[in-house]
Design a protein that fits this description.
The protein is α+β, with helices and mostly antiparallel strands and about 90 residues long. It is built from 2 helices and 4 strands, in the order E-H-E-E-H-E. A 4-stranded antiparallel sheet has the order 2-3-1-4, covered by helices on one side.
């Protein structure tokens, strides 16, 4: 399995960002081949974290691309700063 994690800082409206992600982005993640799970986390203090889990590296990489497009087209005013993006193989899980 592979995971992609995106950390967004400076979020201007966490509730609205969560609503838009839930209503639009979640369905886009489910369409990606190898989809396992997706989580959108409100870490507080203007920080939100997205975690996508896929069966293979290609799915994780596609999720990063789709996230960038979705933020640009739908969330730019709510997520004004570029995310910190990390991706890699899941080496332990439960």
């Amino acid at each position: 399995m592979y995971a992609a994690v995106r950390r967004y800082e400076g979020v201007t409206d966490a509730a609205e960002a969560a609503r838009l992600v839930n209503e639009g982005f979640v369905a886009l993640m489910r369409e990606v081949s190898g989809f396992v799970a997706y989580y959108w986390i409100d870490a507080g203090d203007g920080v939100m974290v997205s975690t996508s889990i896929f069966q293979d590296r290609a799915g994780a990489e596609e999720s990063i691309s789709r996230a960038a497009d979705f933020v640009r087209d739908n969330l730019a005013s709510l997520l004004p700063n570029p995310p910190q993006v990390m991706a890699g193989e899941v080496v332990a899980s439960s």
